[in-house]
Design goal:
Blueprint (H helix, E strand, L loop, with lengths): L5 H9 L14 H7 E8 L5 E3 H14 L8 E12 L2 E10 L2 E12 L2 E11 L3
Parallel strand pairs: 1-6
Antiparallel strand pairs: 1-2, 3-4, 4-5, 5-6
Length: about 130
C-alpha cells in the first residue's frame, strides 16, 4: 500500500466524520461492518463504553429505518489529523450540534480495503 500524505488523509477522514453518520443513505450492515474494525470500541460523550456489536446494531437500525440524525444540524470544526504509526491516524475535531458541543477523536487504520475505525471518543465541552 502506498504512503498517503497528511492532506489526503485529512480529506478522506473528514469525509468519514462524524463517525457512523457519513454512510450513504440506506447503508446496510456490510457497509457499517466495513467501517468499524473487529476490536473497535468507543467512549460516548456520556462516558458510557460501547462495544463494536452494539454500535453496529444501532447504526444499522438507524440506516435501515431511515432514522438518521440530520447531518445539516452537525458542524465539524477544527478538524485535524496526525499519523501515529504506519497506517494509523488520529482524527480530532469539535462537533457542534445546536447548543451541544463535543470534542471528538477517532483512531483510524488505513487498510488496502479502505479506512476502518479502531476507537472513538466524544467528550462534552462547555458551551
Amino acid at each position: 500500500m502506498e504512503a498517503i500524505t497528511p492532506d489526503a488523509a485529512r480529506r478522506q477522514l473528514l469525509a468519514l466524520e462524524p463517525l457512523t453518520h457519513r454512510l450513504p443513505p440506506g447503508a446496510d450492515r456490510a457497509a457499517v461492518d466495513a467501517l468499524i474494525a473487529p476490536a473497535y470500541w468507543e467512549v460516548g460523550a456520556s462516558g458510557a463504553v460501547y462495544r463494536r456489536d452494539y454500535v453496529i446494531e444501532v447504526v444499522t437500525q438507524r440506516y435501515a429505518t431511515g432514522v438518521d440524525p440530520d447531518d445539516n444540524a452537525r458542524v465539524v470544526d477544527d478538524f485535524a489529523v496526525r499519523q501515529l504509526a504506519d497506517g494509523v491516524w488520529l482524527a480530532t475535531y469539535l462537533l457542534l450540534q445546536g447548543e451541544r458541543s463535543s470534542r471528538r477523536s477517532t483512531l483510524w487504520e488505513r487498510t488496502p480495503d479502505g479506512w476502518r475505525a479502531l476507537y472513538h471518543q466524544g467528550t462534552l465541552t462547555q458551551s
